[in-house]
Predict the structure.
Amino acid sequence: MKDMMTIFRREFASYFATPLAYVFLVIFLVMQGLFTFYVGQFYEREQADLVSFFAYHPWLYLFLVPAIGMRLWAEERKSGTLELLLTLPVNTSAVIAGKYLAAFAFTGLALAMTLPIWITVNWLGDPDNGVIVTGYLGSLLMAGAYLAIAAAMSALTKNQVVAFILAVSVCFLFMVSGLPMVLDTAGGILPGPLVGVVANLSFLAHFENLQKGVVGLSDVVYFLTVIALWLGINRVIVESKREAG
Amino acid sequence: MDVLLEARDLKKHFGPLRAVDGISLSVKKGEVLGFLGPNGAGKTTTMKMLTGFLAPSAGSAIVCGETVTAGNAAARRRIGYLPEGAPLYGDMTPAGFLAFIAAAHGIEGAVAEKAVRDAAGAVQLEKVMEQRIETLSKGFKRRVGLAAAILHSPDVLILDEPTDGLDPNQKHEVRRLIGAMSAERAIIISTHILEEVEALCSRAVIINAGRIVADGTPSALKARSIYVGAVTMLVPSADADAIVNAAKALDGVAGVEAAGEGDRTRLTILAKPAAQIADPVGDLVAKHGWHVSQFSVDGGRLDDVFRSVTTGKAA
């Protein structure tokens, strides 16, 4: 635990050691604004809710979360510091968890900076704040799932750009498996129950459940399982890359 | 003396490539072992196995009685390691980096502050403690890596090419530092700078193609050189031919090498194994009244031994 915090602190601080963190935060907030107000037509809808804000998170995260996660391992491997890190008397699980949590905390920070929109909507009208809370929870869990994929993909390569592209691709698959176009196609090939499985694998279905203000245990468990699974994959990849030198 | 570091028949295969093919060695407290070998001989791979970064295909590495594995943090606590090229987090300051290393070793609070201060002091980092590591010169970066390796006062130090890329003054400093630390520790340094081995190491191991091909004190290894007991003289070029002929006629002389240096010639008179030729050559010079401006007896040359054991032919 203490080891994990040591890794966490170093990793989290390293986001702010370069302008990267600030550039990212600005881009994230500008994009949020554009999607919410122009694409989502926040004002035109004349509804006191954050539906137009949360609706675009899956797409926004598709590109922005891999950007947070891409450096996690790729940079260590490229600069050779992975050897330094893994020969410290810290076990590998603590390193993986510490790194992941640092990136997750950074993502959470970015999301927390959107809180003014919550205040705004309360000032303009009388929204159902319970729905907004579960919306934030769903958004954070989904970002966590994207990030776990991005972390594992980052361990696959020394090149951050390759890590980014791999992560976007895998995240995309996990996302679109819930879209009608995929499900319709799958319905033509697979038997009914399997289509249900494909639909259930999708981030979107579980994210939308949480957008409705219902904290279903199954949705929370789904995201936590996805995160645990990808961190497990992350570990396997790190171990195998360590062996490959 | 206690054996602090031991390798037992270490092997590492990458597919069909036998990078390390059965290396056994032990390093005692107080010993500085020079680990030599041509590039690609398996030095770095062996060191990675000794530090637990790589799992051996067979055999084991033991530090202070503990088997080193990726899962055994206790064993790694006893080791200070400077990886090849001294990788560091460029976006941190030496102060931040060393504090991180201390925390990773479980050192906290005032003890950690003192450990960081002592390690930084030992390698003279005080002036750059608050500067970003990526802006430091190569010499300072190497010193930051060294400070990180010694910070937790490990029993075993494993340094992969600690002086690579440093200028002669910095090399001297690093060697002095390693020498000062050696009394209480077992140290392995890999290098292909042979002068360093003579300056620093109490023992040298030469490996080639993943196997140990020579193991002994630097003097013992040098004694295997064809130059051991050879006499080197600087003589006027005019006399050179006469001296060469006279020397070749002496008992115990195996041959003569000559190299021109302007109007003088450097002659190296090689001795047959176990023959003492310094006195006979000296007498010869005195008898003929040749003017000799330099006269030295060779203790053997490590580079010559290195070449002969790693390529199979004498220089």
Remarks:
- Chain A touches chain B through 27 residues (CB under 8 Å).
- The longest helix of chain A spans residues 129-156.
- The mean pLDDT of chain A is 87.
- The radius of gyration of chain A is 19 Å.
